[in-house]
Amino acid sequence: MAWYLTRTRLAPETVGALMNEPQDRSVQVGEVAEANGCKLHHMFWAMGDCDVVTLIEGPSDEDVMAVLMTIFAGGAANAMSTTKLIPMSDGVDILRTAAERRGDYKALTE
To answer: Does position 62 have pLDDT exceeding 90, yes or no?
Structure first.
């Protein structure tokens, strides 16, 4: 299973609705994730260029996209971005593969 970091900017109306009726939406988001074969591991409020950050694990890009499309289609968000994450242990293997396959390529700094 792969890991995905999402950043969501909420619509002003969504923030207003949550202020009027405070609630933890991670339960609902987790249910949507599970319905698509994924798992919501964490959901945080964020300060900065987004309002909510999630860490989702899923079997495929398509399954995670289905989760995100469902959430986005609900109208709560104005913008959403996703980054597929690669565990550091996998990164070591990727670095080895890149080193083996680089051939005669030389960086400008070499």
So the answer is: yes
